[in-house]
């Protein structure tokens, strides 16, 4: 077992639950402190320490870090794209101040490592749509994307200026069945499974030909851990790495699900999220992640669909 003491902030969210459980397996249950604003998630109960925390309260966060001898922080608390558009100032405030609180405490306490996820949402209309490269025009149009891009600059700044070992991934849309998603544009690709199994029908809030980069949660958890475990000198990108696995449209995932759910039908009623999706890439070039620390995805659309349906049926 490793000696590190980890704090996961936003541990009850879609990624947090699975990441916390994976980290507890690696580092030992008592060495991973889960925290969130919400009540402890059912799947976390009894698996390790849980603390109620508002990451916006810097003093409380600082005390927690000192009291638990924390050496690494995974900051997952954020307002996602669709929710962010409903209250842009709140999204900006939470997404930025949470990161600044964590980075500053990392500097003051000399923490070993920080993980903070960015998103494909950093890209905008003026970025190339296909195989969007790591370094390209970045002009996000959503408040979520703007806050992620600013966050990336802060991460790189704290690394270059203060030597903080901050690591980050630009996740694509993540698909999972254990913990519900938190208000994103890519959430349709999760809802579709639930509705297909419950009613054999899905009314999609995006158009049928909207391609977006996606990833199955086991790949995302493994990518996060592999990035954090990689030797320091392998991490060349200190803003955030592009990360890819698959790309599909609502029509394509619908057809794949239809192979397992006879009679499954789809309707399309695009709403305000269509505009968000239209501003994002259709696919991602993640060559640097693959070269620098050996990233390799396992799940494509077909393999993920089989696994999602098997698990949701149980
Ligand atoms: P989520 O919304 O499911 O979870 C976020 C968690 O943070 C929630 O449990 C929420 O209660 C908690 N939280 C919110 N405000 C808080 C506060 N003030 N103090 C403490 N906790 C607070 O989000 P997620 O999908 O798990 O995403 C985690 C991170 O990954 C976010 O930064 C998100 O932008 C990023 N990301 C997610 C995806 C995806 O598809 N899920 C894709 C790209 C990037
Ligand atoms: C969202 O849709 O907001 C997230 C993301 C891609 O960052 N899933």
UniProtKB/TrEMBL annotation:
Q: Tell me the GO molecular function terms.
A: L-threonine 3-dehydrogenase activity
GO terms for biological process? L-threonine catabolic process
Q: What's the short name of a Pfam family annotated to this entry? A: Epimerase
Q: Coiled coil: which residue ranges?
A: none
Tell me the ranges covered by the NAD-dependent epimerase/dehydratase domain, including all copies.
6-244
Q: Which family, according to UniProt?
A: Belongs to the NAD(P)-dependent epimerase/dehydratase family.
Q: Which PANTHER family does this entry report, sorted A to Z?
A: L-THREONINE 3-DEHYDROGENASE (PTHR42687), L-THREONINE 3-DEHYDROGENASE, MITOCHONDRIAL (PTHR42687:SF1)
**How is this protein named in the record?**
Nucleoside-diphosphate-sugar epimerase
Q: What is the lineage of its organism?
A: Bacteria, Pseudomonadati, Bacteroidota, Chitinophagia, Chitinophagales
